[in-house]
Amino acid sequence: MLVFAVVLLTGAGFRFARFFRAGGSSDGLAYFYDVSERKLFVASRTLVPPIRGINDDELDGLRAVVISTSGDVKDKAGQKIAYLEKYSPELKQQLEAMQSGQEGATPSGGRINRGAAQSFTFVRRLNEETWYPVNSAEAEKIMTEWQAPGPDGKTPIVCAP
Questions:
Q1: Are 67 and 82 in contact (CB under 8 A)?
Q2: How many other CB atoms are there within 10 angstroms of residue 129's CB atom?
Q3: What distance in Å separates the CA atoms of residue 108 and residue 78, rounded to the nearest whole number?
């Protein structure tokens, strides 16, 4: 099980490493979006969304991939949310158990394997309600469409807090 945890977290780390490298964050923080408040906030990158938002105990904080359309990560006016990400309750529970070292608490029959984990990870655009599993064609489109150069020919880059 430890091998599964390392592989899953390493895969997620590689997926997000390219994003955070561009933004230059070295302090372990990530952007999250509070759905009810409609505001970005910063929290630990290790938190598994959905997390508690900024205004109450609701789990309405979603990981936000924030991009800079100007190519300058310090230009707040050029920043926008490319997409939001969350995990199913089952995968969230399993990932949090692994992080806390209590992975044995989940019965082996109830564990989500590495191959199936992508079906339990979801993305959506900011102003849409439908969530798509990351292994779907629509999710792939959502996760890559922000990479197209803008009218000025600049390719957006991912920002980190």
A1: yes
A2: 6
A3: 46
CA gap 29, 23 in Å, rounded: 11
H helices present in 1-159, as ranges: 2-23, 89-99, 114-117, 137-144
| Residues present in the chain in total | 161
Residue 87 to residues 15, 16, 91, 121, 157, Cα–Cα distance (Å)? 15, 15, 6, 5, 24
d(CA 85, CA 63): 5
User: Which pTM does this prediction carry?
Assistant: 0.77
Tokens 């780390």 map to which residue?
A: 13
In order along its 161 residues, the chain shows pLDDT tens digits of 433 443 344 344 434 433 333 444 447 999 999 999 999 999 999 999 999 999 988 999 999 999 999 888 888 898 999 999 999 999 999 999 888 777 655 555 567 777 777 889 999 999 999 999 999 999 999 999 999 998 888 899 999 99
